[in-house]
Amino acid sequence: MDLSQAYSMMWTDLGATLSLVVVALAGLILVVFDAFKPRHAATPWIAGLALTIGFVIEMMHIGSPEGLAWYDMVRTGGSAAFVNALVLGSGALSVVLCVPYLERIKHNIGEVYAMILFATVGMLVLGSANNLITVFVGLETMSICLYILTGFVRSESGSTESALKYFLLGAFSTGFFLYGITLIYGATGSMEFGAIRAAADASAGFMFWGGVSLLLVGFLFKVSAAPFHMWTPDVYQGAPTTLTGYMSTASKAAAFAALVVVLWKALPAERWADVMAVFAVITMILGNVIALSQQNIKRMLAYSSIAHAGYVLVGLAAGTQAGYSGALFYLMVYTIMNIGAFGVLALLEWDGKEGSEQTLESLAGIGYRKPFLAWSMAVFMFSLSGFPPLAGFLGKWAVFAPAVEADLVWLAIIGVLTSAVSAYYYLRVLVVFFMKSADDASPAASMTFDVPRSSAFVIAACVVLLLLFGVTTFALDVTQGFFGPASMATLP
User: Fold this and answer.
1) Could you read off the pLDDT of 18-61 as tens digits, one per residue?
2) Coil, strand or helix: which one is 11?
């Protein structure tokens, strides 16, 4: 690598990755600011403003052709801008939801918002990576911050236990990931996606595919795919609810985006498509079946999240341009659905333990006491089930249709059947909300649930977006332009 032009190119590269720079600087500013002004009201405003500015910047670059920066280590524009906008949007909405929630649980500390910003930086690096080293740096930056966010309510044993499990299993998966990178480098002599693809097409031996296998283990852990999902239910249940929504959406979008690019640019599709199909089947079946028996709604949504990872894997198993674009569209829809669902749960939380001990049955009759929250939850549950005309239906069509076109009809059928199974536990939420008497609810659940205007705005925005993306296809059309021959031409 010739570094003689590093300084002359630095300003151009900084401009190309401006959103990442803005968020990183805001995180550093918050750390210093909170040291002198702890728990200041301006802290979440600074975080939200930085994320919003980054979101606007990336939205302006979605239509731009894909480019490279920082010596071809990072991609810009096109699919990278789409994923970055998705991560930044999720972060901004989560910050808005966090403010009243963290105040209510008396943990509205500045470090939380700084950690959200630093985690977002890792996700931006991960989602726009064009090199295995960049993938690893982004993955670990994101993961370390998420470990901290999971367990920052140190007074609760459930939160601490979740963070410890997440850290130990995450460190174990990192070992697989790093060893996989090592084997791939030993087999190809490069960590750039284009050079890896060329070496794989020429002569890929046991060392190379062994490295790919270990690499996939690391990725599948991060996206909560079975059988590497064991951390997900405990972490989702023990973490603060609004932060669970952030982790379940932004981190999954970034990790899946990196996996999409690795599969698309670095690995021949005909060699790994069947493997993705097998993991998709296991993940869809396990996630949906175990979700049926869950009494804690956060834990139920955790297994739901595992099932949705399986749906995305169906699109990746197709190994086609339509499959990749459908996966990105599905990640966008999933982000909107889960941010909204966890936002509602945060406002209905009454157990004083971040919802970790709160059962679904304890919210009986909430549809009559808080109709806005209940009907919003109905939209999210129907969309997660895949009912038209909501965006969840179009999202599932976007990943199942490419599988059918790739002669994976059996895989699409399993996806449809497991989606039908999921309707049972999603609609059970609505049965409890609307068809059970409030007399069946826990006495503690009869407390007044205040709905701040900021949280109501986020939830209402998610509802509107699900309706909008369910009846229009412009967002899906945008993603379909990301994986053509012109994008492959940007490979170094």
Assistant:
1) 999 999 999 999 999 998 988 888 999 999 999 999 999 999 99
2) helix
